[in-house]
Amino acid sequence: MSLRALAQHQEAIENFDLAIKYKPDFTLAYYSKGFSLSELGQHQEAIKNFDTAIQYNPNDADFYISKGMSLRVLGQHQEAIKNFDTAIRYNPNDAEAYYSKGLSLYELGHHQEAVRNFDTAIRYNPNDAEAYHAKGLSLYELGQYQEAVRNFDTAIRYNPNDAEAYHAKGLSLYELGQYQEAIENYDIAIQYDSTSLDIYINRGVALHELGQYQEAIKNFDIAIKYQPDCALAYVNKGMSLNELGTIKGRLKIMI
């Protein structure tokens, strides 16, 4: 978050506090203050304000969704799901509630149930790239790689600049043994996010599978540049160096 945005949220909170001072039961002021606090990463304080808003207006689905989102960031996924369920009870057509519930279910490892919620979110908002992306991640965890690829493709269609969608598609293609296609997707991902450690490591792994050990090592070296203490990058680089050493040894024997 930029300093300007940070300052604007702080100033907004000061104004919401003044609104509350002059009208202590002003529901919108508590909700809006909670939103600004969540944007600042102060989720525990945000939840307190969402709770106060709910106290004054217990039937507003948006209040429960926002509270659930803060709970999810804090890792309290079961509590988050309870709030998303309450939101759905008050607004059964709210795509955001199903999507957010799906994210918490994903974090809990309930991938089949997560897929069902992402499907419902998509039914109510069929153009939401994030819902297809999230559904693809759950399908990947379920080992349904071909279906995952289809969902990542749809996510990319609605948001062509999403580096993580290309990265995730690449991971699914890798699991299908389509290493060259995986690399092509990692390449696009890097165009949109050139500093992602994971993409370089995974591109290196795919290159290793194709026997392109020198190129694989270059990718592991880039990952190490971005995170010098990344054990995974070193071990993968070591494996590619081992393969190069074996090849050189074979050549010497042949000569």
CATH-defined topology of the largest domain = Serine Threonine Protein Phosphatase 5, Tetratricopeptide repeat
| Number of self-contained structural domains | 2
Helical content stands at: over 70%
CATH class of the largest domain: Mainly Alpha
- Uncertain residue segments: 249-255
End-to-end CA span: 60 Å
Q: Name the beta content range.
A: under 5%
Morphology call: elongated
Roughly how many Å is the radius of gyration? 23 Å
- What is the CATH-assigned architecture of the largest domain? Alpha Horseshoe
SSE order, as H and E? HHHHHHHHHHHHHH
Number of helices: 14
Care to describe what's here?
With 255 residues, the chain is mostly helical. It has two domains: 3-190, Tetratricopeptide repeat domain (Serine Threonine Protein Phosphatase 5, Tetratricopeptide repeat, Alpha Horseshoe); 195-255, Alpha Horseshoe (Serine Threonine Protein Phosphatase 5, Tetratricopeptide repeat). The chain is 81% helix and 0% strand. The chain contains 14 helices and no strands. It has helices spanning 3-22, 27-39, 43-56, 61-73, 77-90, 95-107, 111-124, 129-141, 145-158, 163-175, 179-192, 197-209, 213-226, 231-254. Helix 10 (163-175) runs antiparallel to helix 11 (179-192).
